[in-house]
Amino acid sequence: MLAQRWKKTISQTVNRICPLCHLPLDSDDRYWCSYCLNWFRPVSRCLRCGLPMSRETRLCGQCLISPPPWHHLTCLGDYAFPLSHYIHQIKHKRQFDIIEPLARLLSERIKPESRPECLTYVPLHWRRFLVRGFNQSERLAFYLAKYHHLPLRSCFKKHRYTRPQQQLNRIQRLTNLNQTFSLSTRPDIKHIAIVDDVVTTGATLSVLCEKLLELGVETIDIYCICRTPEPD
Description:
It is a single chain. The chain is an alpha/beta fold. The chain contains 8 helices and 6 strands; from the N terminus they run ααβααβααβαββαβ. The chain has helices at 2-15, 61-65, 83-93, 99-107, 126-132, 136-148, 170-176, 203-214; strands at 72-77, 118-121, 156-158, 181-183, 191-199, 219-227. The strands form 2 sheets. The chain has a 4-stranded parallel beta sheet with strand order 1-6-5-2. The chain has a two-stranded antiparallel ribbon with strand order 3-4. The longest helix is centred in the first third of the chain and has 14 residues, at 2-15. The radius of gyration is 18 Å and the shape is globular.
């Protein structure tokens, strides 16, 4: 696997090919060609929950009734090709090289006037960290902090090992997360953003947001690669 990764990296560096269409890149292209960048074109969303809408709106109907505890969500897209492929490659194939270009695209969606005072990220339990060897949300947050010149803090600790969230519905996820997270530091700020790779029900983020709100944090933003509705 390591040899294949080096072969891929060298090939892309020397030959400058787009990883999606495998055609040569122009000199002004970065990671993807200008045509394949259309895969990441933003769509209209609710600015609060981040779910796709027919037109951009500050609050969708669901958020008017029961808004999430965060205030704004910024994402690259839904959990569909090619983002779903990249998430799988990062988590299960250890293709770390894709995190930085994804973070760069995501950083361009963050408006300078709405930047938080610092970033934090969704933690992993130490057992899962040992198996996986990394926290993809932490790495994503690292690059976002770098691009926007923001401090990055590890605010949370996950002290109970839980079943993978993607296998559960919303009620099961909330039960699964009961008494799972605690604050490792107490951020003395008013505006913070939490970074995650994929947001579906938002159950994990809701738990983390509540802990920050209890400390007096006034504004919480969410930055993620994928924002995907919970399956029916």
